Amino acid sequence: MRRFYRGPDLARVHSVAEMAAQAQRKVPYFVWEYLSGGAEDELTLAANRQVFASYQLESRTLVPCHPPRVAQTLLGQRAELPLAIAPTGFNGMLYPQADLELARAAHRQGVPFTLSTVSNLSLEQVRDALPDLNLWFQLYAMHDQSVQSDLLQRAQRAQASALLLTSDALVLGNREWDRRNFVRPRQLSLRNKLEVLRHPGWIGRVMWPSGLPVMGNLAPYLPQSERNALGSMKFIGEQMDALLDWDKLARIRDQWPGKLVLKGVLHPADAERAVALGLDALVISNHGGRQLDGAPGSLDALARIGPRVGGKIELLLDSGVRRGSDIVKALALGATGVLLGRATLYGVTVEGAEGAGRVLEILSEELRRCLNLMGCTQLDALDRDWLIDNRSRADTEGRWAFAD
Ligand SMILES: Cc1cc2nc3c(=O)[nH]c(=O)nc-3n(C[C@H](O)[C@H](O)[C@H](O)COP(=O)(O)O)c2cc1C
Question: What is the C-alpha to C-alpha distance for residues 115 and 97, in angstroms, rounded to an integer?
Answer without folding.
Answer: 12
